[in-house]
Amino acid sequence: MAFFSVIIPLYNKENFIENTIQSILDQTFQDFEIIIVNDGSTDKSEEKLLKFKDNRIHYFSKKNEGASTARNYGIEKANSDFITFLDADDFWYPTFLETIFTIISKVPNQKVFSAAIEFDTSKKIIPAQYSISKTDNEFEIVNYFKASLKETVLCTSCAVFHQSVFTEIGNFDTKIKSGQDTDLWIRIGLIYPVVFSWKILARYVYDPKSLSKNTKFIKEKMDFSKFEEAEKANLDLKKFLDLNRFSLAVKSKLAGETALFYKYYNPIDLKNLSWKKRILLRLPAFILLSLIAVKTFLANLGLGSTVFK
Asked: DSSP labels for 288-303?
């Protein structure tokens, strides 16, 4: 049995999938299986992946039902104790699995592991910014919500989970059309700490065709209502959710969705937001668009992050 099961959900990534698979095969730690779930691709993705001849690659094809269903399918097929995901347009640096394996051996009682990532913005490669103080330690054991107030310390291309995590909290919620990963991270964060490495071991690759960048899906984002009771007793969760509500409220205003704006705005405790964010919530959409254009320009230069968080 392999030490890691690597799950790749694949949908129309013909321009990326070869680099993604090769980044796994180039790992310095080689005890893994790769589970590729083709979620009804209509391009040449299948043709590209079938070029790889490695008996550790297990290929499955199914009708298109979305990335979360594909990931859940992969979890069911996984044979390893430790499960990790890699999106079909992202890639790992060669020591990702070796680094996580070493950390697991040092804290064998922990269940959730992650590492820092960087973003390919199409203009510039920039490292993610996290809300925890960087130290010289090899890794930190952190509270997910405190550590994710800027950028989430868990993402689907740079995290590893013991299979018992899914047994306890369940898989990706396929009833949620957009934001299923955030929903899963919240459920994990309510139970497990995250062992976080400061090493940048993965790159999120910009794909303008990605569904996550399509503004029409704003109406299908999760509204966090399932966590209303939990956030009353967990102030760290409450602040994390309010920052996400802020982001979605701004995006709703930009999309001209007034009712949706108030759906996200009303539950926010404004004390959890900086004065700048409070002002942003009050600005009209045309001013927000101008500010975002400037902020995006600076982010592409590596001088700032998204205006939404």
From this structure: HHHHHHHHHHHHHTTS
Closest CA to 20 of 142, 120, 115: 120
Distance CA 120, CA 213 (A): 14
pTM beyond cutoff 0.85: yes
Asked if 249 and 273 count as a contact pair (C-beta separation under 8 A), the reply is: no
Residue 215 has pLDDT above 70, yes or no: no
Q: Please state, in angstroms and rounded to a whole number, the distance separating the CA atoms of residues 142 and 24.
A: 27
Residue with tokens 């919240």: 186
Which residues touch 213 (CB under 8 Å, ≥6 apart)? Answer: 207
Q: Which helix (H) or strand (E) holds 4?
A: strand 4-10
Q: Taking a C-beta distance cutoff of 8 angstroms, is the pair 118, 200 a contact?
A: yes
| pLDDT tens-place string over residues 241-288 | 999 999 999 999 999 999 999 999 999 999 999 999 999 999 999 888
What is the DSSP secondary structure assignment for residue 223, as one 8-state letter? -
